[in-house]
Structures are given as C-alpha cells and as structure tokens.
Design a protein that fits this description.
about 210 residues, mainly alpha, 9 helices
Length: about 210
C-alpha cells in the first residue's frame, strides 16, 4: 500500500477536523444555497472540490512553492479573489427580487455556481499554501511516489470537505424555501447571500499569510 494505514488513521480525523472548521468554501456554499437553491448549492460544493483538487495537483508538482517564494504572486491572486467575490456580492444585490424556490432558479444556474466555486477556490492562494504545508506531513518518500501519495491525501481531504459543504448547501436551500413566502423575505435572503460574499471578500483582503 502506497500510504501506511497508520498514517491514514492519523490523517483522516485531522482532515475531518479541518473540514468542519468554518471557512471561505463553506460560507460560499451557504451563500449559493440561500441565493439559488439546493441544486446550485451542491454544484458550488463540487466547484470548490474541483478547485481544491487543482490546488492539490499544483502543490504536488511544486507550483505552490512560487506563492511562498514570491509574495507578489500571492498578493496578485489574493486581490483577484477579493475582486471576484465583490462582483458576486454586487450581482446578488442587483438580482431581481423573486422567490428562491428551485423552480425560480435561472436555467443553467448550477453550471454557473460550479464555475463560480472553481474560481473562488482557485483565487484563494491560502488553499495552495495550506495544502503545501499540511499534506507533506503525511507523505513518506520511502513508500514510493510522493506525487501519488500527495494526490491520494488531497482527494481524501477534498471528499470530506465536499460532503460537509453539500450538507451546508442543502440546509441553506431548505432555509431559503421556508422563508420565501413573500418578496420581502426573498430580498432578505438575497441581502444575506450578498453580505456573505462581501464578508468573504473582506476576510480574504485582510487575512495575513
């Protein structure tokens, strides 16, 4: 076996604890679930998972080292992420006030939510730096391909996070359906989702390495 089973017994609980910690990905899926319903929330979770896997692949190939070595690259990606989240918040504010039930969700909203999830994750350099710092602790070069070990651990970490994000998204969509009996309630939910996106932008903007 490429990875020592004893290492997995240590890694899986640690990964689960990290995934249960509220972060930008969880809040993003919450906002999408509130804004566009269950289907979009689940799609956003899958988008975050896609971005997280790409981060893992880049880290495994050593590209994430660039973010640590060259602060300007880190800052450029971070501020691009801030700008994108602000754009999402503005779009949420500008969206016409309509009930947030699944039948009211625009055609293709799941694809858009997936794409947005990928972008949000890729534009958060903290994910790449964290991946590079956390996963190597469980990689043993003596057991074979470090690339393969890195990818296996990354997939385990991503699957756990995706499952949790989906639960959050489904909960948010149900909350949205329960509160969409009036246009006023719909506006409140749209405002909440916009504030979530603004909050994510602020968090990413003011976080320190």
């Amino acid at each position: 076996m490429v990875i020592d089973p004893n290492v997995l017994l240590l890694f899986i609980p640690a990964a689960l604890a990290l995934n249960l910690t509220p972060g930008a990905d969880m809040l993003f899926c919450l906002g999408q679930g509130l804004r566009s319903g269950r289907r979009a929330g689940i799609a956003a979770s899958l988008g975050i998972a896609t971005g997280a896997f790409l981060h893992t692949l880049m880290a495994a190939l050593g590209l994430a080292v660039i973010l640590q070595t060259y602060p300007i690259a880190f800052e450029a990606i971070r501020w691009a992420g801030v700008a994108y989240l602000i754009w999402l918040a503005i779009q949420a504010f500008r969206k016409p006030v309509v009930p947030l039930s699944p039948t009211a969700a625009p055609q293709g909203s799941a694809t858009q939510a997936w794409r947005a999830g990928v972008v949000v994750c890729l534009l958060n350099p903290k994910v790449a730096v964290f991946t590079l710092a956390f996963l190597p602790q469980f990689v043993d070069p003596a057991r074979g391909s470090t690339l393969l070990q890195f990818l296996i651990l990354g997939v385990i970490l991503t699957l756990g996070g995706t499952a949790i994000n989906m639960v959050i998204a489904v909960f948010a969509s149900r909350l949205g359906r329960a509160l969409t009996t009036s246009r006023r309630a719909a506006r409140i939910l749209q405002t909440i989702s916009a504030l979530v996106f603004f909050g994510l932008a602020a968090r990413l903007a003011f976080e320190r390495r």
